[in-house]
Amino acid sequence: MRGLSHAALILLALSVAACGSRAEAGAQRALGERLFTRHCASCHSTAPDTVVVGPSLAGVADRAEQRVAGMDARTYLETSILDPGDYVVEGFSDVMPRRFGETLDTEELRQLIDYLSTLN
Ligand code: HEC
Predict the structure, then answer these.
(1) Is residue 113 in contact with ligand 1, taking CB distance under 6 Å?
(2) How far apart, in Å, are the Cα atoms of 29 and each of 33, 45, 71?
(3) What is the pLDDT of residues 81-103, one digit of tens each?
(4) Atom of ligand 1 lying closest to residue 116 CA
């Protein structure tokens, strides 16, 4: 029992040391998630295989990498948000709003793409 709690203490010390950067990353993710809830969640779920109006965005970070040959994931995600008509996901209608280039500023767009990039 004593040995166990000693190991637990070491683990605790290690996680406290890592805490600063992790808290920062967590705060950034929360900002992106809040934007997602406000602007996107009415049509997109992040639960796997759950279609609302648009496709589930579970795993979109991995998918985005393969959607368009030669296009990296971030560029694909950005294009999907700013010019949704450029690549329409098979089986869905081209109904995603075109206004995100006006409603989101550059910083919000970055936070949103950062958040989507965690959905892998
Ligand atoms: C009115 C409903 C609606 C809203 C709001 C909406 N989308 Fe979409 N979205 C869709 C539909 C429908 C598709 C599938 C057709 C297409 O590709 O345009 C889609 C496709 C996508 C794709 C491509 C997914 C893939 O697997 O390739 C991404 C990424 C995406 N949306 C992100 C977002 C983000 C981020 C927001 C919020 C800023 C958002 N959408 C808001 C309806 C919506």
Answers:
(1) no
(2) 6, 17, 24
(3) 999 999 999 999 999 999 999 99
(4) 35
